[in-house]
Each structure stands twice: as structure tokens, then as C-alpha cells.
């Protein structure tokens, strides 16, 4: 099943491990391209991978395959990477943080990026432990050096932006915003908000359907 995803590499000259290595290394490289855009403050692209539908089918039918051993850290990798891209893109859209609404959305998105950067780094640690072998027995390792450089650059950006936000932090107040200027009845919206009172640590929102 998996070999069908890579018709250009699945000839007799390649072993199963080599096909798996080629596929997932390409996923890492695509992730690098998307994150690199973010380091230049350009919007990144969400990426997808058909292989995780394959692993679901394998699990559902009880079929044992090397993919089930290799794929879990890559699934975490993909999820956290897309979360970074989604939230960093939102930061770019709301970069004029002097506006209170932009400030709130930017800050929440920044914290999501920070958390997912940590998760992505942890997934790369697991990926680097994977050992595949070519048909001659040579160990195939995944190259994560370039995407780790992207993560370091993004972390530097996040720290710089955090310091800027500290200087603009309101002294006191409760701010709540939605992610759309126009909201229709029964439509879904994302809420953003911050509390700036020393004795208030959280607020619970209730709604009636």
C-alpha cells in the first residue's frame, strides 16, 4: 500500500526502509520550506501527508508494518508544525500590535507558537533515534539540521516579540475579541482575550445554545 505513494522510488533497486526514509525525509524538507518562510516574516504553508491515512488503515485491519513503528513521531511533527504555521501566519496578519485587538490576538498566537516549537523539537529528538537500513545494511538517518536551524531562528523571533509585547502590556482591564469583523448567526468564531487584574487568574465563559 505504502509503495504506491512513491511510484518514482519504488523500483526493485530500493528496499522498504529506503522508501520509508525517502518519504519522511521529504516531509521534513517540506516542513523546512514552510518554516523558513516564517523566519523571513512571510506566511508559511500548511502541509499534509497521505501516509497517516495509510497507517490508520493498517491499524484498522490489524496489519503489522514498519510504518506503524516509524510514523508516530512524524505525526506529532506534522501536527505541531502546522500549528506553528497557522499561529505564526495569524501573528503576521495582526502584527500592528499597537491596536488592542491585534495585541490580544498576536499574544495568544505567540504563546501557541512557543508551545508547539517545544513539541516539534521533541518530535525531532525522537525522529533522530529512528534507524533504518538500505539494502546493503547501511544505516539511514534523518537529516534534521536545517529544520532545527529554522526552529532556533523562530525561537529568537518569539523572544524578541515577547519583549516588545511586555512594553505594550495594558496596566489593567479585561479584553475580549473575536477573529472576525462581521459575525453571522450560528457561525463559529475564535475568541481572544486577556485579563490584566492582579487578583484574577481566569474567567469562565458560559453560553446557551
List the helices and strands and how they pair.
Elements: H1 16-39, H2 51-60, H3 66-93, H4 100-127, E1 132-133, E2 139-140, H5 145-168, E3 173-178, E4 191-196
Antiparallel strand pairs: 1-2, 3-4
Helix pairs in contact: 1-3, 1-5, 2-3, 3-4, 4-5
- Average pLDDT value? 83
What strand order characterises the main sheet? 1-2
Helix coverage percent of residues?
A: 40-55%
How many alpha or pi helices? 5
Low-confidence stretches: 6-13
Estimated structural class:
mainly alpha
Structure description:
Residues 6-13 have low confidence and may be disordered. Strand 1 and strand 2 form a beta hairpin. The protein is mostly helical. A two-stranded antiparallel sheet has the order 1-2. The protein has helices at 16-39, 51-60, 66-93, 100-127, 145-168, and strands spanning 132-133, 139-140, 173-178, 191-196. The chain has five helices and four strands.
Summary keywords:
two-stranded antiparallel sheet; mainly alpha; 209 residues; 5 helices
How do you describe this structure in short?
The protein has 209 residues and is mainly alpha-helical. The protein has five helices and four strands.
